[in-house]
């Protein structure tokens, strides 16, 4: 139940987080 939510935001969040983490953290969640 929690893996489906974390995987959905993890696939798109991990790519955006990597580029935003070392660039500019505009949207964290």
From TrEMBL:
Q: Where is this region: Disordered?
A: 1-29
In its UniProt entry, the species of origin is given as Spirodela intermedia (Intermediate duckweed)
- According to UniProt, the name of this protein is Uncharacterized protein
For bias type Basic and acidic residues, the affected ranges are: 1-14
The lineage is:
Eukaryota, Viridiplantae, Streptophyta, Embryophyta, Tracheophyta
Q: Compositional bias of type Basic residues: which residue ranges?
A: 17-29
């Amino acid at each position: 139940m929690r893996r489906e939510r974390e995987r959905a935001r993890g696939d798109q969040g991990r790519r955006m987080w990597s580029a935003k983490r070392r660039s500019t953290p505009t949207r964290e969640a």
